[in-house]
Design brief:
It is a single chain. The chain is mostly helical and 463 residues long. It has one domain. Helices cover 55% and strands 2% of the residues. It contains 14 helices and two strands; from the N terminus they run ααααββαααααααααα. A two-stranded antiparallel ribbon has the order 1-2. The radius of gyration is 28 Å and the shape is globular. NDH-1 is composed of 14 different subunits. Subunits NuoA, H, J, K, L, M, N constitute the membrane sector of the complex. Its main location: membrane. It is a multi-pass membrane protein. One of its GO terms (molecular function) is oxidoreductase activity, acting on NAD(P)H, quinone or similar compound as acceptor.
């Protein structure tokens, strides 16, 4: 491992802020169009890639008919969505209902503007960085775009005026609040060591050592948070098909549904690019390729290849997780975010700040202290999962107390041995038509109007 103490002075000496002084208007246009084309083509490839990889994991081929290796399948699916009938819910809030997908897509397209794809290159004779723009708080801008983009999901679920989309929107709100806190805290340790929130300067600070090595716990917390931030398995609670039909997209069809679908995959690329920039050295070649030819592979257009390769490494991680893990229950999901990720991120942040303060003011050699602290924190978090949770015994119920299905605020089925109270509707029907005989049957028989058994003492059958 390269000493951390030696890495920090090198990072400070290099500087590394992107120089946009020679950029003109048409250069900005070329960069913006290039980023847009890169994202749209990457989404088409990502859909095909995910289906192929998951198919291999499930011992089936995946798409392999349309085009070589099935590469045209994503294009065929996009055309199908484009030509499908566009159904608008009659009771929906029309303006917000149509605007929500565009909010999600527009915000997802903004993030890549501050991501450095490479060093300075020559574009039609103009020397410019492979980056659209940069500023001192670029990472905060990324977090802001991600936060605003969730409004598309929230407004889409609310404006549909339907139960399941609304539940998905509410879940998405809680999910963003929970997991963006952990994500933001995991990134603060990078700011402390890099000394900047500018993406180009953070990449420049990783010349000697990638922040993945000294900040491994922060990287693990970020990876878990980015899966929750993008609503991907096992954290796809806002759209959980088994519970909410399709969540916030239930009432959407045709291209409005495709916009949400597009935003999800662009966000996957965004968080992968952020992880590459902040923890994996950005566009820098991996070791030992960075030593070849005195760093010649870190100049010109070669770094664009390393950046894209690292991004797709994280995309494969997304697909691998989807093909491996099951969906969390909502209570497990929220408990994991608030009781594990956020405390672990806070403890790690305090450790990083303390080590950096000791190093700067006390002049103590702490070059290998952070990796050891990170290992201790990871072990403690892993051991916390082995501690059994204390379960409170349910309160004792009197033998003659009738079972109240709505005691907890929502209906629950009775347990074996519990009795249901008499049906109010059946009593009213019987009062209105006293000559109508009640339906007689064995255990579990219902009243004439499909209600529960009329007898308050009849037991619910076991099994």
């Amino acid at each position: 491992m390269i000493p951390l103490a030696a890495a920090l002075p090198a990072a400070a000496a290099e500087g590394g802020a992107a120089d946009f002084s020679q950029d003109v208007f048409w250069v900005w246009v070329v960069k913006a169009v290039g980023i847009l084309v890169f994202l749209l083509l990457s989404v088409l490839i990502a859909i095909w890639f995910e289906r192929r990889v998951v198919g291999r994991m499930q011992l089936r081929p995946g798409p392999n008919v349309h085009g070589p290796f099935g590469l045209f399948q994503s294009l065929a699916d996009a055309m199908k969505l484009l030509l499908k009938e566009d159904v608008t819910v009659r009771a929906a809030d029309r303006v917000v209902y149509v605007l929500a997908p565009f909010i999600a897509v527009f915000c997802s397209l903004l993030t890549m503007a501050v991501i450095p794809f490479g060093p300075e290159v020559s574009i039609f004779g103009v020397v410019t960085p492979l980056q659209l723009t940069d500023f001192p708080v670029a990472v905060l801008y990324i977090l802001a775009c991600a936060s605003v983009g969730v409004y598309g999901i929230v407004l889409g679920g609310w404006s549909s005026n339907s139960t399941y989309p609304l539940l998905g929107a509410v879940r998405s709100t809680a999910q963003v609040i929970s997991y963006e806190l952990a994500m933001g805290l995991s990134l603060v340790s990078v700011f402390i060591l890099a000394g900047s929130m500018s993406t180009s300067e953070i990449v420049a600070s990783q010349t000697t050592v990638w922040w993945l090595i000294p900040l491994a716990p922060a990287f693990v917390i970020y990876v878990i948070s980015m899966v929750g931030e993008t609503n991907r398995l096992p954290f796809d609670l806002p759209e959980a098909e088994g519970e909410l039909v399709g969540g916030y997209t239930t009432e959407y069809s045709s291209m409005k549904f495709a916009w949400f679908f597009l935003a999800e995959y662009i966000n996957m690329l965004n968080v992968s690019a952020v992880a590459t920039t902040l923890f994996f050295g950005g566009w820098r070649a991996p070791w030992p390729l960075s030593w070849i030819g005195d760093g010649v592979l870190n100049t010109g257009w070669w770094p664009l290849l390393w950046f894209v390769a690292k991004v797709w490494l994280f995309m494969f991680l997304f697909v691998w997780i989807r093909g491996t893990l099951l969906r969390f229950r909502y209570d497990q999901f929220m408990s994991f975010g608030w009781k594990v990720l956020i405390p672990a991120a806070l403890v790690w942040l305090v450790c990083v700040a303390a080590v950096q303060g000791v190093r700067q003011f006390a002049e103590v050699d702490v070059r290998d202290m952070l990796p050891w602290l990170g290992g201790v924190i990871l072990v403690v978090v892993a051991l916390s999962f082995l501690v059994p949770e204390k379960k409170q015994a349910p309160p004792a119920r009197a033998a003659d107390e009738p079972f109240d299905a709505f005691a907890g605020g929502f209906p629950v089925p009775p347990l074996p041995g519990q009795t249901l109270p008499p049906s109010p509707r059946a009593a009213r029907r019987r009062a209105q038509a006293p000559d109508t005989p009640a339906l007689v049957g064995g255990p579990g028989a219902e009243g004439a109007d499909g209600d529960a058994p009329e007898s308050p003492t009849q037991e619910v059958p076991r099994g």
